[in-house]
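JOB MANIFEST
job_type = single_chain_structure
chain_count = 1
residues = 253
[input]
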Amino acid sequence: MSYSVGQVAGFAGVTVRTLHHYDDIGLLAPGGRSHAGHRRYSDADLDRLQQILFYRELGFPLDEVAALLDDPAADPRAHLRRQHELLTARIEKLQKMAAAVEHAMEARSMGINLTPEEKFEVFGDFDPDQYEEEVKDRWGDTDAYRQSKEKTASYTKEDWQRLQDEADALTRRFVALMDAGEPADSEGAMDAAEDHRRGIIRNHYDCGYEMHTCLGEMYVADERFTRNIDAARPGLAVYMRDAILANAARHTS
């Protein structure tokens, strides 16, 4: 039994373009071709695609997925056990985040003021207040710092949740670009970087291209930022930095 690229795309919930890309980079080559030269996928190919999508969902870069799946010593059952452990850990983290969001919603509906610790539960382990003194030391005398403090001083829990939702959506957008094999200097990646810059202006402070590139460099130079960003997808911090630099060059050259 074999399947066309369109059928496989429908089964897996991916685009035909994604399957073509996987074939081009040697990650998932179809087991056969029709008389007309069209791709035909076997059941074994579908099993490999399932493994690829599991690892992709867990944030593994495609080149690492290929290395894992092409390891001749690897046991397919070991792959499944590993993925099950990783997925279980992610489910537990998401359940904790869902509980935190429910707590925030309940407090909001009852008019309860949340503590600073509770306010940032929805942001995971990265607490913006943790580095407040460092931020003051590095940027306390800048207009950007003063603008941000003035804007955020009146932010409600809903405002902070909106900002987090916007950030999460932008992160998913960058990850999707990476998964699709789009280079950091592609139009899509540069457009995402520009939206990132505009979000900073809208929610925090005036952010010109020079300042934006400094932020991008900090995402990579400061391991705390890198670790937080790469939690969504390994290599994301570097990808965002490169997209920010490319976008700045596009608008200033």
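[summary]
The chain is about 70% helix and 5% strand.
Residues 22 and 28 are 5 Å apart (CA to CA).
exit_status = 0
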